[in-house]
Amino acid sequence: AQSVTQLGSHVSVSEGALVLLRCNYSSSVPPYLFWYVQYPNQGLQLLLKYTSAATLVKGINDFEAEFKKSETSFHLTKPSAHMSDAAEYFCAVSSGGGAQKLVFGQGTRLTINP
Amino acid sequence: KAGVTQTPRYLIKTRGQQVTLSCSPISGHRSVSWYQQTPGQGLQFLFEYFSETQRNKGNFPGRFSGRQFSNSRSEMNVSTLELGDSALYLCASSSTGAPNEKLFFGSGTQLSVL
Lengths: 114, 114
Hints:
Order of helices and strands of chain A: EEEEEEEEEEE
Shape of chain B: globular
Oligomer: heterodimer
Strand content of chain B: over 45%
Distance between the termini of chain A: 41 Å
Structural class of chain B: mainly beta
Largest sheet of chain B: 7 strands, mixed
Radius of gyration of chain A: 14 Å
Largest sheet of chain A: 6 strands, mixed
């Protein structure tokens, strides 16, 4: 069975500071990994995904994540936080097989301090 | 291109009633999946449909059901509503529903059961 653990339900950083959101996964098969963002009263939007092509994945809005198999991690980073980054972030894993079934982490709420 | 459209945006029902939620995927997308989002349980997969067939199902009771029409629009139904069914129900679409595909989410239907 697959699972995702996001360390820290709330993360607060200052505007301009580094953003680091942690995600560890468990999967019995090579995983596909995703980071989604949810703004208030909206659905989820894909930030980036790992599909085994490259371990360092670049996404939208200067976010990136690095897949580390030895650590079973897929942490999300952004060099410089903007106020508009305030949202909830979800890490998710999907296994192979014929159809997509995402298993999500519990989410991390990111607050940006001016 | 229009995004994923979910109707209605808000619903209030009482225990024991049934409810039907609707989802129109992005034009050309054939896979539609449904997720339940609650503060306690987070995001949980309900089911996924492709070409009018349910391909995958999450761990929810039989009161939760769905269907997909020939135009890829999907509905989900919850019968005999319980207080615990109060949640944001999110619909997502993708081209084929492959495990590594990006999901496009709607803004959700917020269901409140009184």
